[in-house]
Fold this protein.
Amino acid sequence: MADQHLLRKLPKVDDIISHQAVQQLLKEIGRETLLEVTRETINDLRSNILNSEPGTVNEGLVDINETVKTIENKVRRINEMQIQKVVNGTGVILHTNLGRAPLGAYTQDILQSIAGGYSNLELDMTTGKRGSRYQHMKELLLNLTGAEDAIVVNNNAGAVLLVLSAIAKGKEVIISRGELVEIGGSFRVPEVMEQSGAKLVEVGATNKCYPKDYENAITEDTGALLKVHRSNFKLIGFTRDTSFEELMQISEKKGFPVINDLGSGLFIDLQPYSYPYEPTVQEVVASGCDIVTFSGDKLLGGTQAGIIVGKKKWIQKIASHPLTRALRVDKLTLSALEATLKKYLQPEKAISEIPVLKMMTVSHAELDKKAETFRDILPERLNGLNISVEKSYSQVGGGSFPGHQMESRVIAFRGNPEEATKLERFLRTEKPAVMGRLSEGAYFLDVRTLFESDLSIIVKRLNDWSQRSDNY
Ligand SMILES: *Cc1c(COP(=O)(O)O)cnc(C)c1O
């Protein structure tokens, strides 16, 4: 039995709505939503009382002023943008949880002008007739990759699903066992294959797959050979991979295509910047690969998208599949991607102006300079934590260059594990949020992924922290 007298004392909707503070809320939110929030709040109170042992519920719970406060907080939360800026001090450049690639200033300008008005998204300006939204990007992609044709869809997982659906539905697709990967927890090659209606034919062993493994698996029902780039893990030791060149030789004259899911979308060889070898899109296209897919927001450094390039014959088949419409990109994606891709016409500009590439190739001297700017502004000690600049390592993330570590500089907060934990929580939960790394009792902010404009935010947040740490 619940506390009946408390249930009777529950504030009434009308009383709450006519409360002066709640009336004020009507300036911030519509009446219907306010009523909804009010009813929901009273219902929560009622459930709370019904689910509690009699005598355990505080009388204050049904106080109208308390209820009004709850409603005020709820309205404030509803009005606040839930998706918000986060300062990335993790050192992970392509952090999927933090929105992967940040876009450059030029892309932001383009987005602003396109987003707020009309555009020629599906208009052919020369004829004044309906055009294709894919046309704008096409020439640029063909120039950059050397491919015969190209199309852009919502993301790379969608691109792979679309390609398999359009090319290999009801047919067999041969793939090495070592490439049946899971990416980002929700993209598993076997599952995507099943969705597409293609039949998975696994060949080879996890660590070894020879050309003859593919050859032996070819039947009349073979629809494609699929190569999935192991973008988020490394296979080391006793291994043998079949290269896409070898796959090309196998498929030659057989009539079915080789599909290469590259994932990362690298356009510039980064070996001169001490990165390991990773095939570029141009290289794979030049090798004659029929269909190549990759993400727009990984190493390419653009917005979320799935880019498909390759031989005209196949791309046209893909473009006319009904799923293409379901996976289509909007004007914001297309304009952001076009602006990013334009930078690649001058590779040195791409390196210096696309934030992802810039962060990946920044020199130690520049990192030192960035770190010193912090050291000059921050105190040496804060709430029992010593602040200093240290050498550390950052990662590319987003499943790119797995295992590769780049020497970086971090602002280290050491000397009191409990305080470091509190600091991490404080910076993460208050706005604007700052994300760092908590490791072995210390807190770290990697300067590689910090923008200059983040500096003042961090200084301010640390200042707040020095005054409010007791609450955390
Ligand atoms: C990242 C990745 C995907 C998924 O791409 P999204 O753009 O995140 O959908 C698929 N395949 C490979 C090899 C990848 O690396």
